[in-house]
Amino acid sequence: MSIHQYQNPPIMEAVCELRFAPGSDWDLSYPWLYYEKIKSTYVGKPREQKLLSLEPNATGSPSVIEQSKIQFPMEGDTGLLAIGQDVLSVHVNRPYPGWNAFRSRIESALKEYVVVASPIGLRNIGLRYINQVIIPGAQTNVADYFIFPPANILPLECSVDNFMCRNEYIYKDEPIRFALAFARTEPPAGMEGISAYLLDVDMTWQWPSEPLSIESAMNKVDELRRRERIIFEGLVTDKARGIFDAE
């Protein structure tokens, strides 16, 4: 399958999240030591983000876990770094700067994290691409642009209006999972006479027993990116690609 380089990729946000096997107990000073190393690039005002997640407790029942991250934005909110206990994430927003620039930010952020926190390895690498596909026309035939649109119920002489679906997959060759969400959404504010679609590819590679070495991290990030590109290209048609390549 051909992998295309688009002039106007539909990427609204891309995120790489790294979860670590710690080398020592977490120190509350780590985020601020880290900030000293990256503040010349991430010049926005730091802000706190509270996250809630469900995790099994000692009895196997789910418990609500609260985790805090400190976010360090770039100028104009074109991207940010977020750091919390044993977790680091790198975010880029539209306009997407391209894979080489995004990868460079991930590699640099990882390098500085290792200096500050000295983890022994990685438990999890996530790579997520949230695409917003804008198509001219308030009424469109979804099948013209996407490979797996919801089917029209032809005997009822009706067509799909709004929809949302989410599927989860696991690869056979590696412990990689990905969730694929596809939905019709509201057009961006101020844009009329168009149709908007969300295509969200959220990939996760885990090492629950033996942590992955830090030295192998970027090779794994590259492999996740390669697979994400194959998934995306397998979901869109040439007509959609024409929109992504428009001037």
Description:
With 247 residues, this protein is an alpha+beta fold. The chain has one domain (11-244). The protein is 21% helix and 37% strand. The protein is built from four helices and nine strands; from the N terminus they run βαββββαββββαα. It has helices at residues 30-38, 99-117, 217-233, 238-244; strands spanning 11-21, 47-56, 62-73, 79-84, 87-93, 121-136, 164-170, 176-185, 194-206. It has a nine-stranded antiparallel beta sheet, with helices on one face. β4 and β5 form a beta hairpin. α1 packs across α2. The longest helix is centred in the middle third of the chain and has 19 residues, at 99-117. The protein is globular and about 65 Å long. The model has no long low-confidence stretch (mean pLDDT 89).
Backbone shape: globular
Average of the residue pLDDT scores: 89
Report the uncertain regions: none
Structural class: alpha+beta
Order of helices and strands: EHEEEEHEEEEHH
Indicate the percent of residues in helices: 10-25%
Main sheet record:
9 strands, antiparallel
Number of self-contained structural domains: 1
Radius of gyration: 20 Å
What percentage of the residues does DSSP assign to strands (E)?
Answer: 35-45%
Tally of contiguous helical segments: 4
**How far is it from the N-terminal to the C-terminal residue, by CA?**
24 Å
SS elements, strand count: 9
Strand order of the largest sheet: 2-3-4-5-1-6-9-8-7
Q: What topology emerges from the helices and strands here?
A:
Layout: E1 11-21, H1 30-38, E2 47-56, E3 62-73, E4 79-84, E5 87-93, H2 99-117, E6 121-136, E7 164-170, E8 176-185, E9 194-206, H3 217-233, H4 238-244
Antiparallel strand pairs: 1-5, 1-6, 2-3, 3-4, 4-5, 6-9, 7-8, 8-9
Helix pairs in contact: 1-2
